[in-house]
Automatic annotation (TrEMBL):
Gene3D superfamilies: 3.40.50.360. Signal peptide: none annotated. Residues 35-179 form the NADPH-dependent FMN reductase-like domain. Pfam families: FMN_red (PF03358). InterPro entries: Flavoprotein-like_sf, FMN_Rdtase-like_dom, NAD(P)H-dep_reductase. This is NAD(P)H-dependent oxidoreductase. It comes from Streptomyces bangladeshensis.
Length: 226
């Protein structure tokens, strides 16, 4: 005849309740719409980035109407170039800018960076935004929409992949590359080769949303310790 320890029984029951709570929370997370921060990475006067971003937003909404798309336009963000020292406090100007943008990046499940290519790289304003943040990027996927010249901004994207890898983000393999946008985009901002570009967007978004859901669930079940 065996005797059951009441304390052990209570512990098992408590563990079961805790496990059920984790599963319930994970399912609730899975059911939420994916929030994608679309970062417009150009601030140059006469930029084409706005037209490219508008086209991507329209295309993404048609491909996946359930996405919650949040545009972070760096031209509207006055983020200083001077960063505080380690453990330091941001200036009042920086704190005001961060109060707007940081919660939006933290709330995002994934990112899409719209970037031109300047001198074989990406704009300094984009690197500045990235460097002001750390945990907001971690264990989240990043996709790219690039434009510019014959290379279509691909050299900027390849450098951004290295930067985001350092920040523990996951960049998706496929990207959208618009080559020679001054001739490849119509006056309405829609690519003239719309079918090919929409196909590229579909491929990139498919990978991005898969990773976004997988990593969001993983973060909910076990916080990332990067």
């Amino acid at each position: 005849m065996s005797v059951t320890d009441p304390a052990a029984t209570d512990a098992v029951a408590t563990d079961a309740v805790a496990t059920d709570a984790v599963v319930t929370d994970a399912r609730a997370v899975e059911d939420r719409p994916l929030r994608v921060a679309v970062i417009l990475g150009s601030v140059r006067e006469g930029r084409l980035g706005q037209a490219v971003t508008d086209w991507f937003l329209t295309t993404a909404a048609a491909l996946d109407p359930g996405l919650d798309l949040d545009v972070v336009d760096l031209a509207e963000l006055d983020l200083p170039l001077v960063l505080p020292g380690w453990g330091g406090t941001p200036s009042p100007e920086a704190a005001a800018a961060l109060a707007d943008v940081s919660p939006r990046l933290a709330a995002a499940d994934a990112f899409v960076v719209v970037t031109p290519e300047y001198n074989h790289s990406f704009p300094a304003v984009l690197k500045n935004l990235i460097d002001w943040h750390l945990r907001e990027w971690q264990a989240k996927p990043v996709g790219f929409v690039s434009y510019g010249g014959l290379g279509g901004g691909l050299r900027a994207v390849e450098q951004l992949r290295l930067v985001f890898a350092e920040l523990h983000a996951v960049t998706v393999r496929d990207s959208v590359s618009l080559h020679g946008p001054w001739s490849g985009l119509g006056e309405d901002g829609v690519p003239r080769d719309a079918e090919v570009c929409a196909g590229a967007a579909k491929g990139m978004l498919g990978q991005l949303t898969w990773w976004a859901r997988a990593l969001r669930t993983a973060r909910a079940e076990r916080p990332y310790a990067g």
